[in-house]
């Protein structure tokens, strides 16, 4: 009789442990979503290192779209040519670019000639390097946040199809030809220190 009671107790304990393993509170899904991070639900198909503190990865979503994620801390490398960027093989298939908030500079030639349709510039980016997005093909609009202080020479030059450029308050320097495109129009511009160089750019766009 005592043996049967012992077996019964062990069985109940095992059953309780199984329930604990299977049961998941309703708030758990929300917590996982909050901690998921940029692109974590997409499949990582390529990745690498830009510097000791800056990393990149390419992800693919359920629709087959590819996103380039740049994350970490500090500036990206200033490349001498687009042929030097480590994600070059994705040049014709990338759909979106995401710059993490810890990145302080988008490097020269980083996306020169790439076919991305959109880019999100993180809150820590202070400068966009020379020729960074030159000769783009699919982006229709670009918003430069006010934390970016300098947009360098030809950063968005000859970006075919770019029809709307939004510059938020806080930008200080727009270098020569940074938005030189025949189709470009400025939707909104706060003219602080950047006014003179911006005016010269408008003459190039409209001239």
Question: How would you describe what is shown here?
Answer:
20% of the residues lie in helices and 26% in strands. With 207 residues, it is of the alpha/beta class. The protein has one domain: Alpha-Beta Horseshoe (Leucine-rich repeat, LRR (right-handed beta-alpha superhelix)). Strand 2 and strand 3 form a beta hairpin. The longest helix has 21 residues. It is globular.
Question: Any key phrases for this structure?
Answer:
Leucine-rich repeat, LRR (right-handed beta-alpha superhelix); 207 residues; alpha/beta; 5-stranded mixed beta sheet
Layout of helices and strands:
Layout: H1 2-22, H2 27-34, E1 43-49, E2 54-60, E3 66-72, E4 74-75, E5 94-99, E6 103-106, E7 118-120, E8 127-128, E9 141-144, E10 150-151, E11 164-167, E12 173-174, E13 186-188, H3 195-206
Parallel strand pairs: 3-5, 4-6, 5-7, 6-8, 8-10, 9-11, 10-12, 11-13
Antiparallel strand pairs: 1-2, 2-3
Summarize the structure.
With 207 residues, this protein is α/β, with parallel strands linked by helices. Helix content is 20%, strand content 26%.
Strand line-up across the major sheet: 1-2-3-5-7
Q: Rg, please? A: 24 Å
- Tally of strands: 13
Main sheet summary: 5 strands, mixed
